[in-house]
Amino acid sequence: MLDLIQTLKNQALHQISACHTNDELEEVRVRYFGKKGEITKLLKKLPIINKSERKIAGQNLNEIKDLLLKEIERKKADIEKEIYQNARFDPTVPGIEPQIGNTHLITCAIDEIYEVFAKLGFSRARYPEVEYDWFAFESLNMGKGHPARDEWETFFVDAPDDKKYGEIVLTPHTSSGQVREMLRRNSTPPIRMINIAKCYRRQISIRHLVMFHQFEGLFIDKGISITHLKGTLDYFAKNFFGEKRKTRLRPFHFRFTEPSFEVDISCGVCNGTGIDKENSKCKLCKSGWLELGGAGMVHPVVLKNGGIDPNKYTGFAFGWGVERTFMMKAGLNIPDIRILYSSDLNYLKQF
Ligand code: FA5
């Protein structure tokens, strides 16, 4: 066995020194030290050779193993040094372009919406996404168990109730910022807030998202009327959608506004006529109008909950979906709201 060890040693040293690449070197390593390698085989045989030879053969094998592995490492370093020295810089090879990100469509829409309202003196506010029942519902004149709450299809958070403010929910609408804003302003009008934030509801369809954004306008001062609301909405429509767009108010019911409205905007595809270029019903709106969101005059109970005297002050509020509002821009033709959060870069990069 001792002779065989010596022969393997000389053979392996010769083969290592003849290697020119890392792949060749790896082949040699496997040939001697792999599972079925020559040195591995001898190491496995050690326990069965006679005792007198075993000790010296074991010592020899281990020394040779260390020597060869060191030699392989040394050769590897030589090969790498050579590769590095021979490498030349080729200025004609095209560089690798890093991927550059863009601001998401909805972030751009939020900035644009805010800019329009900022010109009217509204200041941006943000309130918690994880909110107390009191701000999301009760302070807005929606008592516990009121059926109107079902429309919001709320997510409840599994956490202990607060003695004063009740259960914890994922805020289903930005209206939960109304009373918070009144309190933050020490219940002292004038208050002109634009609250743009995430909302959560148990809904998913081509028109519904589980997580979406709303923007909520709130204006409280002496003598504020529906005329101010209509003027503000028209200003937004013209600035965000284009000069020719108009809004209309349709009577509706919300617990926290009285009177309440749903706001429609004239369709940008058929210019509010309901008839498209081919003289048939407009496929987008079908009627000349598209629904934007809710609005109304702030309910006296809500003002009181915000510490404001409803006999002295009045106010209006409106709350619309950012995604839906963005989708109504003329010419965008987005067929399904979920596409906006699909992470499909090919689709999103079109805009
Ligand atoms: C509200 O949320 C009221 N808080 C709005 C309001 C504010 C009324 C202030 C009066 C005064 P509504 O549930 O209709 O109302 O939602 C308003 C808008 O949010 C909708 O018109 C729609 O644009 C958007 N929206 C609602 N649910 C979803 C959803 N699941 N996915 C995407 N957008 C939604």
Features:
351 residues, BirA Bifunctional Protein, domain 2, seven-stranded mixed beta sheet, three-stranded antiparallel beta sheet, binds adenosine-5'-[phenylalaninyl-phosphate]
Q: Could you give the topology of this structure?
A:
Elements: H1 2-17, H2 22-33, H3 38-45, H4 51-86, H5 105-119, E1 123-125, E2 130-132, H6 133-136, E3 155-156, E4 168-170, H7 177-184, E5 191-200, E6 211-221, H8 226-240, E7 247-254, E8 257-266, E9 289-298, H9 300-305, E10 314-321, H10 322-327, H11 345-348
Parallel strand pairs: 1-5
Antiparallel strand pairs: 2-4, 3-4, 5-6, 6-10, 7-8, 8-9, 9-10
Helix pairs in contact: 1-4, 2-4, 5-8
Bound molecules: adenosine-5'-[phenylalaninyl-phosphate].
For the secondary structure, the number of strands is 10
Relevant CATH superfamily of the largest domain: Bira Bifunctional Protein, Domain 2
- The CATH architecture category of the largest domain equals 2-Layer Sandwich
What does the largest sheet look like? 7 strands, mixed
Present as ligands are: adenosine-5'-[phenylalaninyl-phosphate]
Total count of domains: 2
Q: Could you give the distance between the termini?
A: 76 Å
Round the Cα radius of gyration to an integer and report it: 37 Å
Enter the CATH topology name of the largest domain. Answer: BirA Bifunctional Protein, domain 2
Report the mean per-residue pLDDT as an integer: 92
What fraction, in percent, of the residue positions are helical? 25-40%
